[in-house]
Amino acid sequence: HDLPRLVRLVPTIVNHCVARDDVAMAMAQKVFKRLYENDLKLWLEVHLTILDGLRDVCKKLVKELTTWLTYIDDERKYNRDLAVAFLRAQLLSLPDFAAYLSKLMDSGRNLAATEFSMYLVRQCLIEDPCVTVTDFLPVLETLSKIAQRGIGGEALTKLLDDARPVSMAGKDRPAAKDKKLIKPQKEEKPVVRESSDPAGMRENVAFLFDEWMHICSQSQNDKSYASFISQLQGALKGDDITDRFFRILVELSVERCYPPNQMELATNPTAQLSYTAIDAFCKLVVLLMKYLDPTNPNTKVNLLIKVLTVVQKVLMREYETRKLKFNQRPFFRLFTNLLVDLNSLEPSLDQTNYQILKAFSDTFHNLQPTRMPGFAFAWLDLISHRMFMPKLLLSRAQKHGWQLFQRLLVDLFKFMEPYLRNADLSESIRLLYKGTLRVLLVLLHDFPEFLCDYHLSFCDVIPPSCIQMRNLILSAFPRNMRLPDPFTPNLKVDLLPEISQSPRILSNDTLALSYMDLRTDVDNYLKTHQPDYFLSDLKNKLLLPPADALACGTKYNVPVINALVLYVGVQAISQMQSKSTQVASPVTHSAPMDIFQQLASDLDTEGRYLFLNAIANQLRYPNNHTHYFSCVLLYLFADANQEVIQEQITRVLLERLIVNRPHPWGLLITFIELIKNPRYNFWSHTFTRCAPEIERLFESVARSCIGPVPSAKSSDDELLADQFSS
């Protein structure tokens, strides 16, 4: 069911907000009010789970929840089920709540409050303890005084008698840590188990697993393996039994990574673990797949999907229970073993190779860092594993394999985006960022076409401040292409044979334009220059709703801007190519250029920066997109009626050039043309010499591009009139 997953996402989303505490508090207040609107069990569980997640995000929430509860001035404050639920979920400040109950009883004069307090003592201190005597001491003292006054009758006397043994044993009970509620003491296991299994099933599975581990340690004989597995296959009848069997095996495998009675190792990231049980489990799964019906390959895939689903559920339950104490290493070992072992059986599984990789891809997508940040390092290592990433990108169903890996990379970028956007670079985020760059470098070297084809969807989720990461993607070019040297004197870009070819784009570049039905409006304007108000209204259609703007850190819809720029450019190129037999229409006099000029002049500084970035994202390897958008950017510079536009164009180009290589080819040829061609009067603009350090920066970049820096040139009124060569 999607409901638990959606509920778990709430604290993750709030945690990525800029004003995290304010958003958490506002959301908690609405959830608290809705708690009292229904008494259905599912209703209460969902809302309490949301509050529990928000409590981990905002440390002040427990104090505020206690205040809200104590300020209720009607009969709802005596809701027994809710009060017990709050106490068991550790959502109340016990000293404040106990003091409130003591005062509310008014020495026994408030009968409803007295009965309410008696109920809480019996439920939460005596029958199923979740608080200590110390926590509820003010309540017990008040009830004792009430009993001495003869109020409360036999029920109160019996309650105090039942509470007395608990009070006597209170010194042996652990104190509540950090003023939080505690659960009754139980032996804590390294793995959180489910308790709904049939009686004796766990013991039977453990016995079978012990037998299997003994076989693995004593023999490498396929005959002994096959004998055991044939017996096992006969016992695994029915989906429910199979699911339970594999779940118990996963729990046992992970639990046996830790030495007996050394629970502290489960939360120690550097402790030495034993992976014998996990290795045996993985071997069992692989051999089960090997010996399944060879005439039906889908049976093997279905078994793997079942196993991966079980592993995913156990991992997520472990993570939700342990939170910051979650240890990812046993699960990393488990996934790695399965990847390696299944690839070693490739001849027998060749027909199902893509389906197997897809099963792993779907599992990794479900375990993405946005949902499980504590699994992020293992997750990045898994998706870039030599037995997964290259196999998926080289699979026979290449198009589908690329889509799957593109989805995983987008998952990674979405997780890192808020941290990179806000420059919230803790040591762990820095390490994850470095790891991401290394994966991109491998892709740039071995699979550049993959980066070329999906550059748009990657740029949608990479924040503008991550210039080097974006440059790595935009620098990719097909392996069968030899890039012309951008520093060649008098390079005629429009005469290059590749410049007339369109690049392949596998990203869905029109999906974002469905926002506010923008594509229909754009198509109408490009064909008819109508309606008249389209250009003036366009800016508002690029804005996000206020709530989304707060979460994204910008008021503009970046994917819509990127898609709009690319779509308008593609339509412009198509129009000019269709008129190739006629007089070519200049780039500078067209409906697409009207749209670009309107955006450059109407947008504020933030919006214009995002718009110019969207254009610069198309300056890649030699193709007609690169040529067209280079002409667009240069024309916008020449035709700008405000120097701030020219300054922002320069900034967008320059900031991509001053970072470490690689630099996109189209970016280099555009900047060289801008600073070298006298028609743009680049060196006459004041922003190039506004400060000594800025001037030195420009001179340094210019020297690396064109040699000695020219002196400031006189104004040249000639505007860009280049025509796009089809």
Topology:
Layout: H1 2-15, H2 20-35, H3 41-57, H4 61-70, H5 80-88, H6 94-105, H7 111-127, H8 137-148, H9 153-168, H10 201-218, H11 222-235, H12 239-255, H13 276-291, H14 297-322, H15 329-344, H16 346-349, H17 353-366, H18 376-383, H19 389-393, H20 398-421, H21 427-446, H22 448-453, H23 455-461, H24 467-474, H25 518-528, H26 534-538, H27 546-552, H28 558-578, H29 591-602, H30 605-616, H31 624-639, H32 643-657, H33 665-676, H34 692-706
Rg, please?
33 Å
Which structural class best describes the helix and strand composition?
Answer: mainly alpha
Oligomer: single chain
Number of helices: 34
Distance between the termini: 53 Å
Helix content: 55-70%
Mean pLDDT: 82
Number of strands: 0
Strand content range? under 5%
Runs with pLDDT <50, length 5+?
167-188, 581-585, 711-726
Largest sheet: none
Shape: globular
Could you characterize what this model shows?
This protein has 34 helices and no strands. The chain has 726 residues and is mainly α. Helix 10 (201-218) packs across helix 12 (239-255) and helix 12 packs across helix 14. The longest helix has 26 residues, at 297-322. The relative contact order is 0.04.
Which labels suit this protein?
34 helices; 726 residues; single chain; mainly alpha
Quick rundown:
With 726 residues, this protein is mostly helical. It is built from 34 helices and no strands.
